[in-house]
C-alpha cells in the first residue's frame, strides 16, 4: 500500500529536523546536476549551489513532494523528472534548440556529433536530448532524492516533508531561479526558440506530467514469487547504459543508447515487482548513474578553462563526496529494519 502523509507525527518533529532534508536536497541537486560529472572546477562549486540551487533544488523538492503527497512511488518521480528535463532544456535555458549553446565552452567540439542526429523540422539533436534529459532524470532528480531519503528513518522516508505553505515557498524559489537563468542566458546568447519548438516542448512536458499523475502509479501491485537479486546487481543495467550509449556516433548510436535505456528501465521495473525488493535496491538503482558520472569526471574538462590543479581538485572532491554519500546511505539502510520494503517501481 502507498504510504500517505502523517501530519501528526510530522508536527511532533522540531522545525530543524523537518527542514534538514529539504535544505540537503536543495543543495545536493545542483551539485549532482552540474558538478558531479566534472562540469565545474572546485572553485566554482559554491557559485553553482548559490545560482543554480533555487532552480535545480527547487525542482527536486517539488517533484519529490508531489509524489509523496500523492502516495505515489518512483514511476511518478521518474516521469516528473523527465518532464523537468524537457522543461529545463526546452523552455528555460533552451539548450536543446540553441545550436550555439556550447560554443563558448570546452564542449564546442561536440557540435558536429550533435548535428549528426538532428530531428528534421524541430531542429534539435536527439543525442543532446538524450544526454540533457537523461542527466536531469538521473543526476538532478533521482540520485539526490534517493540519497536524502536513504539517510532518513523508515517512518519519514516516503512521507512528505512540507505542507502547503512550504510548497508555495519552494515553488516561488524555483520560479524565480528559473526566470533568473532564462533571463541571464537569453541576455548573453540572444537566442529564443521558434514557436514550433516551444510548442513541442510544452506539449511534451504536459504529456509527461499527465502520465506521471495517473492514478495507476498509486495502486499497490502484487509481487512476483521469485526473489530479487542482490542490490549491487541492480546497478549493472545502469552501468551498461552509460558505457554503451557512446559506442557509435549518429543515428546508429542513438538506436543503441535508446535500446539500452529501455532494456535497463524494463529490467529494473521487473526486479522491483519481485519479493525482497527494498531500500538498498532503490539506492543502488538511483545512484549507479551518479557513481558512473563521478568516475568519468577525471576524463572530461570543465565548461570553462581551469588550472590543472583546480580541475583535479574538483574531480577528487567529486569522488570524495559521492563515495561518502553513497557509502553513508548504504550503511544507514543496513542499520534499518530489513523487513521494510518499498512499493514496486
Give a quick precis of the structure.
The chain is mainly α. The protein has helices spanning 7-12, 15-35, 45-70, 74-92, 111-115, 126-151, 154-157, 164-189, 195-212, 231-234, 236-244, 250-272, 279-296, 308-335, and strands spanning 118-119, 124-125, 224-227, 274-275.
Give a verbal description of the structure.
With 345 residues, the chain is mainly alpha-helical. The chain has 14 helices and four strands. It has helices at 7-12, 15-35, 45-70, 74-92, 111-115, 126-151, 154-157, 164-189, 195-212, 231-234, 236-244, 250-272, 279-296, 308-335, and strands at 118-119, 124-125, 224-227, 274-275. The strands form two sheets. A two-stranded antiparallel ribbon has the order 1-2. It has a two-stranded parallel ribbon with strand order 3-4. Helix 6 crosses helix 13 and helix 13 (279-296) runs antiparallel to helix 14 (308-335). The longest helix is centred in the last third of the chain and has 28 residues, at 308-335. Mean pLDDT is 90; it is low at 1-5 and 339-345.
Features:
globular; 68% helix; single chain; mainly alpha; two-stranded parallel sheet; disordered C terminus; 14 helices; two-stranded antiparallel ribbon; 345 residues
- Please tally the helical runs, counting DSSP H or I stretches of 4 or more residues: 14
User: What structural class do helix, strand and pairing data support?
Assistant: mainly alpha
The dominant shape is: globular
Range of strand content: under 5%
**Helix percentage:** 55-70%
| Separation of the first and last Cα atoms | 13 Å
- Residue stretches low in confidence (pLDDT < 50, at least 5 long) are 1-5, 339-345
Strand order of the largest sheet: 1-2
Q: Find the count of extended strands (DSSP E, 2+ residues).
A: 4
Return the average pLDDT rounded to an integer. 90
Calculate Rg over CA atoms: 20 Å
- Along the chain, the helix and strand elements come as HHHHHEEHHHHEHHHEHH
Largest sheet: 2 strands, antiparallel
Amino acid at each position: 500500500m502507498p504510504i500517505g502523509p502523517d501530519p501528526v507525527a510530522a508536527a511532533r518533529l522540531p522545525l530543524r529536523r523537518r527542514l534538514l532534508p529539504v535544505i540537503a536536497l536543495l543543495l545536493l541537486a545542483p551539485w549532482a546536476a552540474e558538478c558531479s560529472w566534472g562540469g565545474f572546477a572546485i572553485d566554482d562549486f559554491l557559485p553553482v549551489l548559490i545560482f543554480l540551487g533555487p532552480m535545480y533544488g527547487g525542482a527536486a523538492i517539488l517533484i519529490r513532494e508531489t509524489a509523496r503527497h500523492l502516495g505515489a512511488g518512483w514511476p511518478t518521480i521518474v516521469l516528473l523528472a523527465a518532464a523537468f528535463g524537457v522543461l529545463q532544456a526546452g523552455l528555460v535555458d533552451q539548450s536543446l534548440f540553441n545550436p550555439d549553446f556550447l560554443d563558448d565552452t570546452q564542449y564546442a567540439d561536440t557540435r558536429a556529433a550533435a548535428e549528426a542526429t538532428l530531428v528534421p523540422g524541430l531542429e534539435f539533436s536527439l543525442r543532446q536530448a538524450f544526454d540533457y534529459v537523461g542527466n536531469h532524470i538521473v543526476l538532478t532528480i533521482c540520485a539526490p532524492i534517493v540519497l536524502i531519503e536513504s539517510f532518513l528513518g523508515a517512518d519519514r522516508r516516503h512521507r512528505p516533508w512540507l505542507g502547503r505553505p512550504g510548497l508555495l515557498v519552494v515553488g516561488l524559489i524555483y520560479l524565480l531561479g528559473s526566470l533568473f537563468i532564462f533571463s541571464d542566458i537569453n541576455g548573453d546568447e540572444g537566442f529564443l526558440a521558434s514557436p514550433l519548438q516551444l510548442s513541442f516542448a510544452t506539449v511534451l512536458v504536459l504529456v509527461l506530467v499527465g502520465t506521471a499523475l495517473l492514478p495507476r502509479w498509486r495502486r499497490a501491485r502484487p509481487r512476483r514469487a521469485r526473489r530479487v537479486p542482490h542490490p549491487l546487481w541492480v546497478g549493472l543495467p545502469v552501468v551498461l547504459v552509460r558505457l554503451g550509449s557512446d559506442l557509435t556516433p549518429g543515428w546508429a548510436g542513438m538506436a543503441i543508447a535508446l535500446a539500452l535505456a529501455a532494456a535497463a528501465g524494463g529490467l529494473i521495473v521487473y526486479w522491483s515487482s519481485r519479493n525482497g525488493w527494498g531500500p538498498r535496491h532503490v539506492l543502488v538503482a538511483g545512484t549507479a548513474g551518479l557513481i558512473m558520472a563521478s568516475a568519468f569526471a577525471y576524463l572530461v574538462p570543465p565548461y570553462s578553462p581551469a588550472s590543472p590543479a583546480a580541475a583535479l581538485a574538483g574531480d577528487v572532491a567529486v569522488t570524495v563526496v559521492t563515495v561518502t554519500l553513497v557509502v553513508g546511505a548504504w550503511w544507514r539502510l543496513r542499520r534499518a529494519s530489513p523487513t521494510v520494503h518499498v512499493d514496486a517501481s
